[in-house]
Amino acid sequence: KWTEALSSGHSAQMNLLAHGLKRYPMREWALCARGLAGHSKWHNTRHRKARQDSARGALYDRMGKELRTAVISKDEAAIADATAKAKKAGVPKEVIEKAVQRSRDRASLESVTYEGTLGSACFIIETLTEKRTRTAADVRAALKESGGVLGADGCASWAFRRMGLLQYDVPASSGGAEALLEAAMDAGAEDVDEREGDEEAGRERGAGDALRVDVWTETEQLSSIRETISRHGHDPSDEQLVYLPTEALQLDEHSLHSVECALEALEALDDVEEVWHNVAMGTANG
């Protein structure tokens, strides 16, 4: 349709083109206009780089959270451990230093959790703020944009279970996943899931074609289970306390779009650290 609009000069098609130019980068439009195949060298290189950038960004975010947790705890040994772990994972020195400094700047902030709903969808929003009233107003406005509301404690948390999550990346061909699953269950894990890992992230951590193993624990057992599994030679690539939905909510396309808009607005807020929801994304009914 885009190339037809370029050649036809038809007003409706030109309006489509004008609308598209606002939404997509010029390079994308140049590729479409020239009718380049989806398997061009540039296309493959660009998408491979996008995957690499995404994996690298996820790694930096994960390490940043660990550094922030350590700084907030004011435990210098924990800060040193988190710094060493980030270096070992390949995070550049300047990125680590900025993350530590930013965390120190935010260490005096208050952790506040908000709950909201949008129709049947439930949200738990974790924030760090120096001014509760401002953050509450921002969260309320972000939800309201898509038809949601900020509610009282308990209006959304009933739909979740607070759990500990340990994530491990192990080489797919090493048999390590089996040993890890056995160690986790022996340590008292609530559940263990195995799935295909991120190829680029696995290579960055030296795991090659990796399997991702998720180990679920009771919150109070997270540390003890991690230590037990570590004694079997496995260190987690990520560790966090999560809100796990007790049931994944299936929505129609319109409602799903509203939830996606709400998530985008919430995650854009500077004070927001995490947003948890109970919606099955990408699986609209009807």
TrEMBL record:
Gene3D superfamilies: 1.10.10.200, 3.30.70.980. Residues 188-199 have a biased composition (Acidic residues). Residues 40-104 form the TACO1/YebC-like N-terminal domain. Residues 109-279 form the TACO1/YebC-like second and third domain. Residues 188-207 are annotated as: Disordered. Pfam families: TACO1_YebC_N, Transcrip_reg. GO terms for cellular component: cytoplasm. It comes from the Eukaryota. Belongs to the TACO1 family. This is YebC-like protein. It comes from Calcidiscus leptoporus. The lineage of its organism: Eukaryota, Haptista, Haptophyta, Prymnesiophyceae, Coccolithales.
